[in-house]
Amino acid sequence: MRRQQDDLLHRGIGMTSQRTRERLIQRLYEEGLSNAAVLEVIRRTPRHLFVDEALAHRAYEDTALPIGHNQTISQPYMVGRMTELLLAGGPLDKVLEIGTGSGYQTAVLAQLVERVFSVERIQTLQERAKERLTELSLRNVVFRWGDGWEGWPALAPYNGIIVTAAAADVPQALLDQLAPGGRLVIPVGEGTTQQLQLIIREGDGFARHVLDNVRFVPLLHGSQL
Ligand code: SAH
Hints:
The protein is of the alpha/beta class. The chain has a domain at 65-214: Vaccinia Virus protein VP39 (Rossmann fold), CATH 3.40.50. The protein has seven helices and nine strands, in the order H-H-H-E-E-H-E-H-E-H-E-E-H-E-E-E. The protein has a seven-stranded mixed β-sheet. Strand 4 (115-120), helix 6 (123-135) and strand 5 (141-145) form a beta-alpha-beta unit. It is globular, with a radius of gyration of 17 Å. It is found in: Cytoplasm. It comes from Azotobacter bryophylli.
């Protein structure tokens, strides 16, 4: 078992050498990521295991890559940026993620917060992500196949919510499921006009911060096999 895992972690080690990973971290730092814990987790998370073997040699480039079903694994900079925003208010217990995709962002989060609840609308992607996290022995994640527009009400409230697809409007269900002081990081907008927003539940209302211009795949409705 142990042996199997070692083989898996070192698959394609030539192309995914420590040096290549260090270069990525250096670049993310130069681009403005500053949370040492987040950078360290990105450094040690084997992103090449989250893409097709044919793309493994590009896994440590700072770029989004296709994962099938017209979806992409997020760019490492964006994974780091969103994770930093989520964690900037202090340690997080329960985090809801909408858009599991490859499971890469999920794996990063799982190493920085207590528990992750991750919702994906495409069942095939969800199953593969689940396998990868099991292989990496990340056990504090629960997966759900469903429509993220509804959040995951049964387990609410959450201290943090991260959405990795762009919504035309912020889903009301996600606002409702945010704990007091909870933080929601979400790309909002359509087509090429999208902005990353940080929304914090404060008292009876919400504080909204409009941040970077971004480019994400759309948050779709319904679920599919
Ligand atoms: N963080 C992922 C990003 C995947 S791309 C990664 O790094 O791999 C966005 C993902 O959101 C896709 O997998 C897409 O299927 C999913 N998605 C889109 N709309 C959704 C919805 N309404 N509910 C749940 N997942 C959704």
